[in-house]
Design a protein that fits this description.
heterodimer, A: 97 residues, alpha+beta, 3-stranded antiparallel beta sheet, 4 helices, 3 strands, elongated, B: alpha+beta, 5 helices
Chain lengths: 97, 146
């Protein structure tokens, strides 16, 4: 999925898995600027993965609850990659003996 | 278009060149050695598992513990069932692993199910999304054979 194809964008998405956050909170946990975080949030919002709400003067971002297909597809691709890494770990361990 | 819960199940298989005991051990006790925390974690934290029924799989970031999953079934070296907390506020899903002796190693079968418990909004858009499946499956076949 293109919305999660970028490494930093995936990191933004992953940070939101622990709960809703403002742009400032997201930027504090990532090695990129606030404008860059805002840019990534816009792409995630367009893809329906993230939604935005107002809390006083702050904008809070959270994972969209209706992104079933996107999430499922995300994990579908994720497991392919993770199992490759797992296979390497199993066989690498044997190779070192 | 009718959506069957079975259509949503993610199935992956990988063959590893080690016996089931070892394959099971690397998947569980060795989880932190292969999990891609750089790109797939809450904050690149320390991944740990308490591998017994009722135990938790966690990621610790700056002293804060995030629960990824809890262990529902633990049956080494045959299999394992985890209740996977995909995202807070979403229903948990079920991740099952089977380790089957095969050729000179182990066939590891992963199924990730329970997506049908998500809000209906997602299911409605699923109908328009099926054309993407051919692409996803082609990608998967390449992976599996690679």
């Amino acid at each position: 999925m293109d919305a999660l194809g970028d490494r930093t964008r995936r990191a933004v998405f992953e940070q939101l898995r622990s709960g809703p956050k403002s742009v400032g909170e997201l930027a504090a946990g990532l090695p990129v600027s606030r404008p860059a975080v805002s840019q990534h949030l816009r792409v995630l919002k367009d893809a329906g993965l993230v939604s935005e709400r107002r809390d006083g003067t702050r904008r809070i971002y959270e994972l969209s609850p209706v992104g079933l297909v996107e999430l499922r597809d995300y994990f579908d691709q994720f497991w392919s990659r993770a199992l490759d890494a797992y296979k390497e770990a199993v066989e690498g361990k044997r190779g070192r003996r | 278009m009718m959506i069957d819960a079975e259509d949503l199940v993610i199935r992956k298989t990988v063959h590893v060149g080690a016996p089931p005991e070892e394959a099971f051990d690397v998947f569980t006790r060795g989880l932190a050695d292969w999990w891609p925390v750089a790109t797939h974690s809450i904050g690149g934290g320390a991944v740990a598992g308490d591998w017994r029924v009722g135990g938790l799989v966690t990621e610790t970031v700056d002293g804060e513990v995030h629960e990824w999953a809890d262990v529902l079934e633990y049956d080494p070296p045959r299999g394992l069932l985890l209740r996977w907390r995909v995202t807070p506020g979403h229903p948990p899903t079920e991740l099952r692993l089977r380790f089957v002796a095969d050729r000179d190693g182990t066939r590891v079968e992963l199924t990730h199910a329970g997506w049908e418990a998500f809000p209906d909004g997602g299911l409605e858009s699923y109908a328009g999304y099926t054309s993407g499946w051919d692409r996803v499956l082609a990608h998967y076949t390449e992976r599996a054979q690679g």
